[in-house]
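Response regulator
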Amino acid sequence: MIRVLLVDDQPLMRSGFRALLEFEDDIEVVAEAGDGARGVELVREHRPDVALIDIRMPVVDGIEATRRIAADPALDGVHVVVLTNYGFDEYVLDALRAGAAGFLVKDIEREDLLHAVRVAARGEALLAPSITRRLIARFIAQPPAPDPGARLGTLTGREHEAMVLVAQGCSNEQIAERMAISPMTAKTHVNRAMAKLHARDRAQLVIMAYESGLVVPRDR
């Protein structure tokens, strides 16, 4: 059973998501909150598999709530997916940097919502290639100062290669095909890279790849 916690300051939005999620046999909504502060409290109380958190809320917004959850070692198994009305913007990028596994636009189709929750519960990032391209565009517009040695020196050559492919939007199966290895081995390389860099998930690995200079957008 996938346990989900909803955090949104709009009661109608929460009830709509709850109705869609609880119709499924494998998903249970364990609690809901109207602001980020209360949401973090409930995450600590219920330890859900997935926390769907609105980015823009009173008291504590979704970015700060995500940061608090990501900073708590006891909440390692909680995967945050941020909700936005506006598509990909600077708030979403900040949330991904804070530790979110991905994001959803609130007018998402029902099947896409269910797929996203199940993907997040498995510990995978909600970063389709199209989203990765938008991330790259942000780094082209505002390139960070690279510091590859300090952050990436512990990775093996294969882990470097796997991280580059993740940053290009590849799935484990695509990484396996590119590297001529099994999908399980590809997943192992990705997981080891995440562990060494203290990345919570693939979303943070993508951001680290660009922030560190390991991957440089061609248009930069």
